[in-house]
UniProtKB/TrEMBL annotation:
This is Polysaccharide lyase. Gene3D superfamilies: 2.60.120.200. Residues 1-23 form the signal peptide. Keywords: Signal. Pfam families: Polysacc_lyase (PF14099). It comes from the Bacteria. It comes from Novipirellula aureliae.
Length: 297
């Protein structure tokens, strides 16, 4: 009898420890932000639901968001516990078959254009806001294209983008954060590309390299304007790395709203297990009216 009681106590203690342990692990980065910063968050995804319902809410006719993949079974977005910035889960964005632009584009796109589903009283995202996410690159991927098979774009790898609808209500990219590869030292860094401005590319003068196998934070301030009064500023781990103002950030005054997304999108990449395959991770993504990376040092 004494042995049975002892066993029960041991099991109870063990259960208590497990539940506390999980609770501690699921206390996410966002819940630990300063109160004022936390109060400015319009929307976030920490993926602690263990699925992608924060990006693609079920049972909504008009979610104001969604997951848009290109490439059939060669583009997969899924929640994973393989790595997590905080809590237990992140989102894994995987593409395969992105080889020398010969098989077309492969894309995972996690997109938002409202603060909450239209069905639940959602509104367009504000005219200006901060868009952020933690990212994890497990390998030093390289999207650069080389002669003689470079079709002329030199390579691109879109991991964070803004879009807007044109006069015909067709969604088009406005500003893209690409990850580029420096062949001289093998380092990766973020650059901006905008097909609706001139010049189209803005690169860092002294590129801040991206870590491989470690989480890093990317935050963008985006002010929407279809004339030339828009603004975009990029911080990496709380350090300002890119900026443009007096630029176009929407295509037409009719659709002066931000559409934001993160993902894994290219037509050529190496550095993974096989040519054309690439998995990257995102966690603790947020839209806010205050800069969340002020707390990162
Ligand atoms: Ca998480």
């Amino acid at each position: 009898m004494r042995a049975i009681v002892g066993l029960c106590v041991a099991v109870l203690l063990s259960c208590t420890w497990v539940s506390r342990s999980i609770a501690e692990q699921t206390s996410t980065w966002i819940t630990q932000l300063p109160e004022e910063t936390k109060a400015s968050i319009i929307w976030y995804a920490d993926h602690e639901t263990g699925d992608l319902s924060q990006w693609d809410p079920p049972n909504c006719k008009y979610p104001g968001a969604g997951i848009f993949n290109t490439g059939g079974e060669e583009a997969i977005a899924e929640a994973t516990d393989r790595v997590a910035h905080s809590g237990l889960f992140s989102v894994q964005a995987t593409i395969r078959g992105a080889i020398r632009a010969q098989h077309g584009k492969r894309a995972v796109r996690l997109m938002r254009w409202t603060d909450r589903p239209w069905d639940q009283g959602g509104s367009h995202l504000p005219k200006s806001a901060y868009y952020s996410t933690w990212m994890f690159l497990p390998k030093p991927y390289n999207s650069k294209k080389y002669d003689p098979w470079d079709p002329g774009d030199g390579g691109w790898w879109n991991v964070f983008q803004f879009k807007a609808e044109d006069e015909n209500d067709v969604s088009q990219p406005t500003w893209v954060l690409n990850i580029g590869h420096d062949d001289r030292n093998g380092q990766l860094s973020v650059g901006l590309y905008s097909p609706i401005n001139s010049p189209r590319s803005i690169l860092q003068t002294n590129p801040k390299s991206l870590p491989i196998g470690h989480w890093f934070h990317v935050e963008v301030f985006f002010l929407v304007d279809s004339k030339n009064d828009g603004e975009i500023t990029v911080w990496q781990d709380g350090v300002k790395i890119l900026h443009a103002d007096q630029v176009k950030t929407a295509i037409c005054s009719k659709n002066e709203h931000a559409v934001w997304g993160i993902g894994n999108y290219t037509d050529h990449i190496t550095g993974g297990k096989t040519e054309g395959s690439c998995s990257i991770y995102f966690d603790d993504a947020a839209i806010s009216t205050q800069r969340v990376s002020q707390t990162i040092h």
